[in-house]
Amino acid sequence: MLRLAQEMVLKQHHIESNEGDWAYESITMEREELDQETLPKECQLPDLVMTHVYLLEDSRAEVDYTVYFITNPTSEVEYVRGVLVDGKLVWYQTGGHHE
The pTM is what? Predict the structure, then answer.
């Protein structure tokens, strides 16, 4: 998923990065624990999800890019992916599977 995050930021914001530029973590969470302001309004999620979050800081422009993927707890079904710029949702896609 890190490569997907890199590709998304490159394609959408023209920021090139290396793996070492990113911070990331994956956490199982309950739906209520998610920040609803960072999700699309029409996003329907089950009670328990896995969140994969990738953070890239562009120190020259003083901008933080966050890419997230929300999946089922085994990461086999993807519900939504999104890009935040300085904490604001700027792009998302719902549904899909990944390998």
Answer: 0.89
Report the distance separating Cα 25 and Cα 51, nearest Å. Answer: 8
- Which of 49, 39, 36 shows the shortest CA–CA distance to 75? 49
Question: pLDDT by residue for the chain (99 residues), tens digit each?
Answer: 999 999 999 999 999 999 999 999 999 999 999 999 899 988 889 999 999 999 999 878 799 999 999 999 999 999 999 999 999 999 999 986 443
Does 99 fall in a domain?
no
Report the number of distinct structural domains present in the chain. Answer: 1
